[in-house]
Amino acid sequence: MGSFEWHKGTGGFALAAEALRVIGLGAHDSLDFIGAMRMVPRDERKLFLHLLRDVLAHNSVLVTDLSVTLLDGRMRVIHIEAEPEFNEHGNTSGYTGVLQDVTDRRLAEDKIRQLANFDSLTGLPNRRQLIWRTERALEQARRMGHEVGLLLIDLDRFKVINDTLGHAAGDELLVEVGRRLRSCVRHSDQVIEGMLESVGGRSHRTLEAVGRLGGDEFVALLPEVVDERDAERVASRVLEAMREPIFIAGQECFVTASVGIAIYPRDGLTTAELLRNSDVAMYAVKTQGRNASALYTPMLSGRGRENLELESALHKAIERGELVLHYQPKIDVRAARMVGAEALMRWQRGNALVAPGDFIPLAEETGLIVPLSEWALKEAARQAKVWQLNFGFSDSIAVNLPSRLFERSDLVEHIHQCVSAYGVPHRAIQLEITETGLMKDLQSVIPALHRLNEVGVEISIDDFGTGYSSLAYLTTLPISEVKIDRSFVRDLGITPQSSAVVTAIIALARSLGLRVIAEGVETLRQMEELHRLGCSLMQGFLFSRPLPPDDLERWLAQTVLPRKAPWIAQASAEDMHSPNGNGQRPIGGTLR
Questions:
Q1: DSSP calls for 78-132
Q2: Cα(582)–Cα(93) distance, rounded to whole angstroms?
Q3: What is the mean pLDDT of residues 384-404?
Q4: d(Cα 500, Cα 489) in Å, to the nearest integer?
């Protein structure tokens, strides 16, 4: 520590020998004020001179830390304290003070500040620092009358990469994403808390930054925007920055983002409101397909409340007995008979019947799909027993299961309990899994598939042909049936491509000894074309919509047994004239 003096009249600036040693000079060296200022970095020099003028104007005490570059190139932090001296007339005659090297203390403080305010993985401002910056930006906006933009950025399907390549690769990905996001704004790492007001002008712009809120969520703070279009331009830069592939763990990955935008004061007056509403906008992007941005609107918030209410009601639906299964028959058109049924969940909410498309995605997102599926398995087993007693039903009821249920070690035991409770065989229940769901978690579900096969539960691959995956799994997994997706059935008899795909699926299934069933059959033209191509098992509105169990029994009694449906006559005529037909009458009136 060393002392110094500054005399106002002469402008004399003198440092004691100890003060000279603090700034790396010898006891016999000299240094004037201009020379001292040249040791201070340019940006910090400007701030210091502004502060110094203010101190002199008010004859106040000077207390500050200043970075300097010594003659040998070392960077040091010097603590300065000075107070005014007065002459016999009470006027300021100069200042006396002390200098102290506080570099080590500042490094320790900076380390603590870094840990408290910045994310240890990406180096970006953390939640605490983001909230502080946003509060300061809103204060300035209220004072100066401009708008503030807040962008919530959430990575799409980050969990897939994290689970597939490991957490180390996931961390590497987050670091690279953070680097790209920094380039999308005028990012400023350091903000000196006391300088925002003293510097004046547009100093609040130094608050602009991208930070990591937590997990795979990031926030971009725009402390001054002209209007929402400014924020949308930044969102576009974010989406563009994510388009290039990211190489991690030797693997090329493509990561997209969903961006929600909230604007002060239109979308909220506080940090909490802006974060909440940008989150609502971000989730709207997620539900509409991801990889885009959206501005918050009150209508989105209304949808959010509706979803919360729907989720709450769905939690209670099982307890209240509001869930029901409707059944769509599977038809063998050659024999004109039902050879099974698919169970489709419906929600009887008050007087309204909620379609699966309105609550199944919500159930999957919240995890409620697990208890819903467990209930469906038990209810399907109960219905199989009722039909067995009513009309000798001995086929299977297919239940759709999400891939996550196949990962459960107790799935076989749960199905065993369901069928045992009602005294029906394991084959009374068939499980359907979509091809996309199967391939997404193939290695995880393989053990369950084999255990199910061993006890007699058949597996059907739903939406077959839409998974864009290797067909090698068909040769190794215990699969009994594939269902041709309705998208291929729709254009049968119209486009040759659809016929070619269906022909290939039928040939493939036959060569592997698998049953093949076409779903989504709605017209006689589609049925005739499928029949001609060699597929006689079908399902769709042409035969019956999904029906409550009692209505399905009536459908059997009033349509199939008396052979009154147009498709029965058409199928019979097709069979009579087909090259493979034997001219015999199909078995139209029997129910198995």
A1: EEEEEEEEE-TTS-EEEEEEEEEE-HHHHHHHHHHHHHHHB-TTT-SB-HHHHHH
A2: 122
A3: 92
A4: 11
